[in-house]
Amino acid sequence: MRTAVLSEDLQLQIAERDRPEPGENEVLVRMRSVGICGSDVHYYEHGRIGDYVVDSPLVLGHESAGEVVETGAAVDDLHVGDRVTLEPGVPCGRDDCEYCRSDEYNLCPDVHFMATPPDDGAFAEFVAWPADYAYRLPESVSLQAGALIEPLSVGIHVCRRAGVGLGDAVYISGCGPIGLLAMEVARVAGAEPIIATDVLPSKLERARERGAIAVNVAEDDPIAAVEKATDGRFADVVIEASGAAPAIENTLDVVRRGGTVVLVGLAADSVVPFDTNEIIDNELDLLGSFRYRHTYPTAIELLANEQVDVEGLVDFEMGLDDVDEAFRRVQSGETVKGMISFD
Ligand SMILES: NC(=O)c1ccc[n+]([C@@H]2O[C@H](COP(=O)([O-])OP(=O)(O)OC[C@H]3O[C@@H](n4cnc5c(N)ncnc54)[C@H](O)[C@@H]3O)[C@@H](O)[C@H]2O)c1
Ligand SMILES: C[C@@H](O)[C@H](N)C(=O)O
C-alpha cells in the first residue's frame, strides 16, 4: 500500500509498505480523507516537537476518516462498509494507570498517538486501528467532516475545560483551525459576544464569517476592543489558541475579574512572563487544555445536527501523491486547512 513517510532527513515521500492485518480487536480502515495538522507541518519543518523526535521514518497524519474493509475476530459493533473516523490517541488502558482508571484518558502518559514518534499516522491507504477508537459516521456526515472531528474535539475539550455557557463573553486569540473550531463550539454553547483575534486578515475573515467580532492585533488594540464589546466587563472566558507569546501575555488583560483563561496554543518558547499577582487579585482560573477525551460522540452529534461547520475550514484537497506540495501550501500560513484525499 502507499503511504506518505517523513524520513529522518525530513523528506516527505510516497513509500510502499505492507498492508497491515487487523488484530482481533481492530478494524482495518481504507483511508478516504486525512487533514494536515499544524503538528504534521511542524515535524516536516523541524523534525521534532519537544522531546518527540523523528529519528526513524514516520507516517504523518492524525485527522482521519475512511471505510472499514475488514474486522478483527472480536469486533462485533463495526462492520465492513461502515464509514468511520479514528480517534488518534489510544491510551494504555491498564488497571494500574491512574489516568485511564479515572477516565482522564487524554492524560495517560503511555498513550499511543498517531503521527507522534514512534507511532505512525494515517497518510496511508490502510490503517489497522482499535475498534474502540473508531466511531461510525452517520450518512449525513461526510468523510471530510469526519476527519475534522479531530481538531473539533480539541475545540470541544477546551470549551468544556472553560465551562463556556449561555451568554458568556468569549475572547479567542488565534484563528487557525483550533481557534475557529473552539469558536464554533462556544457559539453552540451560547457564548455571546465572541471576540476573535489574529494577525492575518484572511484568518480574521473566517472568524467574521462565523459571527465573531474580529480584531487584527497587528493594527488594533485587543484590550480596547474587548472592553467595548463587553461594556467594560471584559471576557468571561479567554481561550488562547495561537501559541504566540504576546497573545498569551495578553490573556490576563482581556479577562474579567473572576474569569477563566484556558491555554491551548503551544508556545514555541514556553517561558512567557505572567503577572501572577493579577491572577491572584482577580481570582482567575488559569487552565491548560490537552487534546481531548470523550469528545468524538459529541462531535458526531454536533455535525449530524448541523450545529457546527468544519468543512468551511477547508481551503484545498489534494491526492496522496501530491502530499509534499500540499504540505508546502499549508506551510505558507495563508490556508486554514488542507486535506489529503484517497481514491
Ligand atoms: N493543547 C492541545 O491539545 C492542542 C491541540 C492542537 C493544537 N494545539 C496548538 O494550538 C495552537 C493552534 O493550532 P492551529 O492548528 O489552529 O494553529 P495555526 O498556526 O493554524 O493557528 C494559529 C493562528 O494564530 C495566529 N496568531 C499568530 N500570532 C498571533 C497573535 N499575536 N495574536 C493572535 N493570533 C495570532 C496565526 O496567524 C494563526 O492564524 C498551536 O499552538 C498548536 O500547536 C494544541
Ligand atoms: C491533539 C492533536 O491535534 C495535536 N496535534 C497533538 O499532537 O497533540
From TrEMBL:
Instruction: List residues of the Enoyl reductase (ER) domain.
Output: 9-340
User: Is NAD there in the keyword field?
Assistant: yes
Q: Which cofactor does it need?
A: Zn(2+)
Tell me yes or no: is Oxidoreductase among this UniProt entry's keywords: yes
Instruction: Kindly give the InterPro entries that the UniProt entry links to this protein.
Output: ADH-like_C (IPR013149), ADH-like_N (IPR013154), ADH_Zn_CS (IPR002328), ER (IPR020843), GroES-like_sf (IPR011032), NAD(P)-bd_dom_sf (IPR036291), SDH-like (IPR045306)
Top-level taxonomic group: Archaea
Its family remark reads: Belongs to the zinc-containing alcohol dehydrogenase family.
Q: What is this protein called?
A: L-threonine 3-dehydrogenase
**Origin organism of this chain?**
Haloprofundus marisrubri
